[in-house]
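user: can you give me the structure for this one chain? tokens are fine.
assistant: on it. calling the predictor now.
[tool input]
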Amino acid sequence: MDAAQRRERIIAMLDESDRPISGSEFAKRLGVSRQVVVQDMALLRASNRNILSTNKGYIHFNPGLKKQQKRRCIKVCHHTAQIRDELYTIVDAGARVLDVMVEHSIYGSISVDLLIENRQDADEFVKRIEAGDTRPLKELTDNVHYHTIEGASEAVLDQAVANLKKKGYFMEGEDSTNE
């Protein structure tokens, strides 16, 4: 298979998958090095393919392929020790946490894709925070941060927000919006 065929195969694999695919997994399945996969991803992005790199692997953001989900940007605040509980609160309501974003006074908006769909994803995320020498993004803004959450219906998102309110994590205001 030549390079162009391999890149088309990468797109097909992403579109067929219901989860992110790591660079190592691509390399193994395609019989190339991980570096070749990284280069292919860069070329695909340069050709306007909407490929996102997440902490769990690559995804192809193609809204036309998947059932339309409801999304909402929410503003929250909590201590670092409460990250797992915040994420559990959202996923237990049936929603996914797509990203985390902060509004920094100097750097402006800083956003990172998370794609947390269940408790296991939340546990893995918290484990990486605990194991590293890094601090969560929210610590740049006195724990205030935003998440884009996604669910099958407005009722799912409403339940996630209601549960966050009960725990005191949700911040009311003009910054929490529906999309």
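assistant: here you go. The first strand starts at residue 51 and ends at 54. The helical segments are 3-16, 23-30, 34-46, 83-92, 119-131, 154-167.
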